[in-house]
Amino acid sequence: MSGYTRDDGEGGMGAGHPESSLAAHEATLGYERRPVVSGLSVQIPPGSFTVIVGPNGCGKSTLLRAFARLLPPTEGRIVLDGRSLREYRPREAARRIGLLPQDSAAPDGITVAELVLRGRYPYQGLFQQRSEQDERAVVEAMEATGVVEFADRFVDELSGGQRQRVWVAMALAQQTRVLLLDEPTTFLDIAHQIELLDLFARLHREGRTLVVVLHDLNHAARYASHLVVMKDGVIVAEGPPKRIVTAEMVEQVFGLPCIVIDDPLTGTPLVIPRSRSHGSRGSD
Fold first, then answer.
1. Residue (of 122, 67, 118, 121) closest to 89 by Cα position
2. What pTM did the predictor assign?
3. Quick one: which H or E segment has residue 259?
């Protein structure tokens, strides 16, 4: 397994991660002078599993990129633990915030263990060899995501679901307080989607703050402790899914007529679309 051995010492993946505060204050964000989000303010509850939802192009991923320090606001501030994110040095920020972007491409000929080790870059000097702490973090990350058996395999040999778990492992190896995930279930089949979401729920229970962009509103309602709903660069609603996921909100934001019932398994909101072509069938 590329020299990686299990270390049963104290200090696991969830240990020593105090809750972290992340917020946007009157932030204007965009690309090439074209604002996507203007004057947006939002507070991510510390220790929450926050999910951001909304139609395509509404600014979800743009906001996540700003939280990840990849897109500085042209106006306003992104704040982490009371300090502007601009004040953090890159490695200092990378020890606090981890990101799994939408499109992740592994270099050719890299093994799973080697890719996960790249998550340790904030802790390594230019010529520093990997430490025992690095090895322990890599093993714990691979165990948490169930990819230990693939450690010596090339990443490009794995299935889509397996590769996505490897990328999550790399993000976990950073051992950050906050984990940002941009559409992590896209292109995965339903079984792998639920597998990943269950993993994120476990990480949340272990004390991490998660901020996740999802397209599936029912998945968001089931897993989120805090939901942020966006449309046209504006936050339309935020709060517990049970309170804000209503048929009126879904139609207003997504243009989708529906009914909302309690999920029979979880009690969380379950959105059932009304078919436009068959909406009146059986109503006589």
1. 122
2. 0.86
3. strand 258-262
